């Protein structure tokens, strides 16, 4: 199936690993030109080279820290300069640490909101005017199942992503008439280094084996397994495509049935 995005320019965050990397790969496979960004230059450059070699598309790597105020404006400007324009943006970066929700502090909230809300909102805001003027744009945010079913020790993540979801929904309605769609995807538990480190941290913190931590998570996933990054990337790419032109303001889970409530 032709997704109609060959030659489109896409900016993908957190693209040196996990879900961002899988999304970048899938967009490249559809013929998109890419700017990818994250903090660690070495890994980013290696991933850019691999995607370029595998899919034969231009890939620019941009170094930035989503926890740093001002990073979004710079990344948006550098991506636009490198690609000529940005048609598609995948909002994604890192994660705040697990914390007991009764022991949060102001510095932790400030970092979490910068990373999960302020930076992605500033990035999308910087890129929206050109998308609206062109009459075509796609914004896809990688959120979390935690915005529908809060995850016990990830209160910074639940709340920060909830703020971003509220902005996405509000803005999607405003720009829908200009050919710009804005959607969110909600991963449940997909096998990436992030999930590996969360499971390891839980095992160390509770004195359980990593196998029993995983078994407890698996018991809550009707599909009976963790997902693969490409299972999320397929949806990200569809939402970024020309085919998804009438879908906006939606939040779709990729979670093997983990979320038990209605949407
Ligand atoms: N995997 C899941 O099942 C799952 C479930 C729910 C939510 N999520 C969320 O989805 C996002 C991606 O997770 P993942 O599983 O793909 O994790 P991952 O494999 O660890 O990848 C994270 C990516 O983000 C980059 N990154 C980290 N901190 C950053 C920062 N401050 N600024 C810019 N880039 C940063 C990393 O590169 P550098 O370290 O070099 O910057 C890396 O490229 C995270 O927000 C995660 O919390 C994932």
Defining key terms:
Rossmann fold; seven-stranded parallel beta sheet; alpha/beta; binds NADP nicotinamide-adenine-dinucleotide phosphate; 263 residues; 2 domains
Short characterization:
This protein is an alpha/beta fold.
Characterization of the model:
The chain has 263 residues and is an alpha/beta fold. The protein has two domains: 9-190 and 228-253, 3-Layer(aba) Sandwich (Rossmann fold), CATH 3.40.50; 191-226. 48% of the residues lie in helices and 14% in strands. It is built from eight helices and seven strands; from the N terminus they run βαβαβαβαβαβαααβ. The chain has a seven-stranded parallel sheet, with helices on both faces. α1 (18-29) runs parallel beside α2 (41-55), α3 runs parallel beside α4 (106-134) and α6 (193-206) packs across α7 (210-219). The longest helix has 29 residues, at 106-134. It is globular, with a radius of gyration of 18 Å. It starts with 8 loop residues before the first strand and ends in a 9-residue tail after the last strand. The mean pLDDT is 97. Bound molecules: NADP nicotinamide-adenine-dinucleotide phosphate. The site of NADP nicotinamide-adenine-dinucleotide phosphate has 28 residues, from α1 and α6.
Q: What is the CATH topology classification name of the largest domain?
A: Rossmann fold
Provide the gyration radius in Å: 18 Å
Based on CA inertia axes, which overall geometry fits?
A: globular
Bin the strand percentage: 5-15%
> How many beta strands in the DSSP annotation?
7
For the residues shown, what is the average pLDDT?
97
Instruction: Write down the domain tally.
Output: 2
Low-confidence stretches: none
Largest sheet: 7 strands, parallel
Alpha carbon gap, first and last residue: 28 Å
């Amino acid at each position: 199936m032709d997704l109609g995005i060959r030659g489109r320019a896409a900016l993908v965050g957190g693209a040196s690993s996990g879900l961002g990397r899988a999304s970048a790969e899938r967009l490249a496979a559809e013929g998109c030109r890419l700017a990818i960004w994250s903090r660690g230059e070495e890994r980013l450059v290696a991933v850019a080279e691999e995607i370029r070699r595998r899919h034969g598309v231009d890939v620019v790597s941009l170094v930035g820290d989503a926890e740093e105020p001002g990073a979004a404006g710079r990344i948006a400007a550098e991506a636009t300069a490198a690609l000529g324009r940005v048609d598609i943006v995948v909002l994604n970066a890192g994660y705040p640490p697990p914390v007991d929700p009764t022991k949060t502090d102001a510095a932790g909230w400030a970092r979490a909101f910068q990373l999960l809300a302020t930076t992605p909102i500033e990035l999308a805001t910087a890129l929206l005017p050109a998308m609206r003027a062109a009459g075509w744009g796609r914004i896809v945010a990688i959120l979390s199942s935690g915005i529908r079913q809060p995850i016990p020790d990830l209160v910074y993540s639940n709340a920060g992503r909830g703020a971003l979801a509220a902005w996405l929904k509000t803005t999607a309605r405003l720009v829908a008439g200009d050919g710009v769609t804005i959607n969110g995807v909600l991963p449940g538990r997909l096998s990436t280094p992030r999930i590996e480190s969360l499971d390891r941290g839980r095992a160390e913190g509770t004195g359980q084996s990593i196998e029993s931590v995983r078994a407890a998570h698996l018991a809550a996933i009707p599909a009976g397994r963790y997902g693969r990054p490409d299972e999320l990337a397929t949806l990200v790419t569809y939402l970024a495509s020309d085919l998804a032109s009438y879908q906006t303001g939606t939040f779709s889970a990729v979670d093997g049935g983990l979320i038990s409530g209605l949407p």
